[in-house]
Design brief:
Strand content: 15-25%
Helix content: 25-40%
Distance between the termini: 19 Å
Order of helices and strands: EHEHEEHEEHEHEEHEEHEH
Oligomer: single chain
Number of helices: 8
Largest sheet: 6 strands, mixed
Number of strands: 12
Length: 244
């Protein structure tokens, strides 16, 4: 019987993971199935597990990377430090949470860094933002979080100035603004502060080039979308699920 894996989030119509793992399983002749499991409410999670007792591993995506934690039996130390989970291993009824976003983001970012990328702006304050913040700490890159609401340790988009943009040469969008199908969306920042020394990294991968990245291209910045990060975190999830 084929091993069962999947992704939990809402909505999931355009999730990257099912097609990626289907291709992986086919090309590598792995007897496994990966399915989408959209849950409109995280409270449905226990019933979902009960109805699918053969699941060996799950990916977790928006909006449940933080909300899933109370439903787990164990947390990997890195996931615990971050406060967000995007990967769950299930063995002998024990659910253990991991975060593969942080290492995947770091691995995809490092080759692009230059000596002037010493401070960053993190746009957003969700689970992905927490993983990015953790990675930047590991790289000794100072950062400021920016969000719609005034929260501890954050500034709002309204407070952000073009001088702030100019002084933070690395800007990471962790929000879903601009993600398919709402491709016209973009973070409301003063883009006129951008320069050719900036690096704009968008965790979104669909579309390949968001409006956020288009603004970067307009101001001759370096740009990076989230596709490589997604591939890396998917492979790290697969490693976790297949550990002895």
């Amino acid at each position: 019987m084929a091993s069962l894996y999947g992704i939990v989030g809402y909505p999931l119509a355009h999730s990257f993971s099912p097609a990626y793992f289907k291709r992986k399983f086919t090309t590598q002749q792995i007897d496994a199935v990966y399915e989408s499991f959209p849950l409109a409410d995280i409270k449905e999670f226990p019933a979902f597990l009960k109805a699918n007792p053969s699941i060996k591993g799950l990916n977790i995506t928006i909006p449940y990377k933080e909300k899933i934690i109370p439903y787990l039996n164990q947390l990997d130390s890195i996931a615990g430090n971050i406060g967000a989970v995007n990967c769950i291993s299930i063995k002998d009824g024990v659910l253990k949470g991991y975060n593969t976003d942080a290492s995947a983001f770091e691995q995809s970012l490092v080759p692009l860094l230059q000596s002037h990328h010493t401070s960053a702006l993190i746009l957003g304050n969700g689970g992905a933002a927490k993983a990015v913040a953790y990675s930047l700490k590991q790289l000794n890159i100072a950062f400021q979080k920016v969000s719609r609401e005034k929260l501890a340790g954050t500034i709002t988009y309204e407070e952000l100035t073009s001088e702030d943009i100019a002084s933070h040469k690395l800007i990471i969008n962790t929000t879903p603004l601009g993600m398919y199908p709402n491709v016209e969306g973009f973070p409301p920042i003063p883009y006129e502060g951008l320069s050719s020394k900036h690096l704009l990294y968008d965790l979104i991968y669909n579309p390949e080039e968001t409006v956020f990245l288009m603004y970067g291209r307009h101001y001759s910045t370096s740009i990076k979308n989230g596709f490589q990060m997604l591939e890396l975190q998917a492979e790290k999830s697969w490693e976790i699920w297949n550990r002895d």
